[in-house]
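Predict the 3D structure for this chain.
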Amino acid sequence: MLTQTHIRSLVAAVALGAAALAGSAQAAELIVNGSFEAPAIGGGNYTYPATTLDSWTYSGSALVGATGANAWYGNAPPAGQDGDQFAALQSTGTLSQTFTMLGSTLDLSWLDAGRPSFGCCNGDQSYQVTLNGDLLGSYSTTSGEAFSAHDLVVHGLNNGGSYTLTFTGQATSDETSFIDNVSGTGAVPEPAAWALMILGFGGVGAVLRGQRRVFAAV
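Done. Predicted structure below.
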């Protein structure tokens, strides 16, 4: 006969196995063109897109071709950029993308840097990151700051739900943060993993029902 200690150990073992199976699911990238490499606009160029462009919606923000000299940063871009292009989040401009969630936990990361100081226009920008309008965090850059990494984990999202990630500038003067390498991943357990978890918990339930019948007969 299984003792209560044995039952607790069995339940704990199944729970640990379930967690391991759930954690083994492959993460999928949900953000398209997170490095802002499309469309290729060429080094030294920049553009203020009037509409959604390769999955990103720019409003008062720019796409910068960051190879060689450029009016946005002078002779050389800040160190640490990803690829040949990045976005410029200027003043109160916004940069956003809508995606379909996979799973319930979003792992979000990105790079930011500060535009060099030109007197008239600098990189002392503050900005907010929101998801469907809910504030995830507030960040800031300083003039001439190299690219640095940020990351967030957002729980409790709806699998298959539509979400809009938005970067919003907070400066009322001409201040700009450069944004690059935006990544958002989500994952759900594979069907086989779900089946194993259900079988495991079902087995524990069967054992517990059997134990209750034995205890009642004693």
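The two ends are 12 Å apart (CA to CA).
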